[in-house]
Design goal:
The chain is of the alpha/beta class. Helix content is 45%, strand content 17%. The protein has an eight-stranded parallel sheet, with helices on both faces.
Length: 249
């Protein structure tokens, strides 16, 4: 009864065999897949796909490298108009790996703050990207009163994660944990009651540059169990309960 809490299943790399990919996910014990988006076209496609494949739970957001206030306003209007079909605002956030100038980072923070306010207004969870900006993203979320938050594939240190823990936020772990010392260290220090699992398909799989898919979610479960020296069943129970707390399914 697992949920893959962050995928890009609308990506064109899945167009040729999406039905087969989703069938493999169901066979591996996945009951729901959160389909995030990076722009308006993704949000629209996610709605269409969710009507075709009930396993998909659509989300909509603007990837943080889109530094465009007009595009952010259009996305906000789309989210409001489709609020009852969407399960989350995402992905949204900060990306200091790509965005380097202080002026552009300030604009990125303004756009992110607007999406935080929108998610609070609509009572939707935030599915957050924070590459090379974990501390800054957490600070902005806390300062703006965000309550329902998933930190997707968090790449920061445990010290940057602690304020998010105190605020009751969740951290989702992708299959790339099998090759990432940072993710392994993070899981070692994070409590089980704040963990979710994701694949970020088609990326962040167990092998670099190989297409990832939701069926690989079990690798995240196995890795968490090994790191915490507990059973996989214990991990499954915990992440299912955590997903229900945040998303209601």
């Amino acid at each position: 009864m697992l949920t893959d809490t962050h995928t890009h299943i609308c990506d064109t790399v899945f167009d040729a065999d999406r039905a087969e990919v989703l069938a493999r996910a169901e066979q591996s014990g996945i009951q729901a897949i959160i389909a995030v988006g990076e722009d308006l076209a993704d949000g629209q496609k996610n709605l269409v796909l969710a009507r075709e494949f009930p396993i998909l739970k659509p989300a909509a957001g603007l990837y943080p490298t889109h530094l465009d206030l007009a595009a952010a306003e259009k996305m906000a209007a789309f989210i409001r108009a489709n609020r009852w079909e969407l399960c989350a605002v995402g992905e949204v956030g900060l990306d200091f790996w790509v965005v380097k100038s202080e002026q552009e980072r300030a604009l990125q923070k303004e756009i992110f703050a607007r999406f935080i306010a929108l998610a609070i207004e609509l009572d939707l969870p935030l599915n957050v990207h924070s590459r090379s900006a974990g501390r800054h993203a957490v600070d902005l979320l806390v300062a703006n009163g965000a309550k329902r938050v998933q930190m997707h594939a968090f790449d920061g240190k445990i010290t940057a994660a602690r304020p998010a823990l105190a605020a009751g936020y969740f951290f989702s772990i992708p299959p790339s944990i099998v090759r990432s010392r940072q993710k392994q260290k993070l899981v070692r220090h994070l409590p089980l009651d704040c963990l979710l699992v994701e694949t970020d398909s088609p990326v962040l799989g167990p092998e670099p540059r190989v297409r990832n898919e939701p069926a690989n979610l079990t690798m995240s479960i196995r890795a968490i169990a090994e790191i915490k020296t507990i059973s996989e069943a214990h991990v499954v129970d915990a992440v299912v309960a955590n997903t229900h707390k945040l998303y209601g399914f």
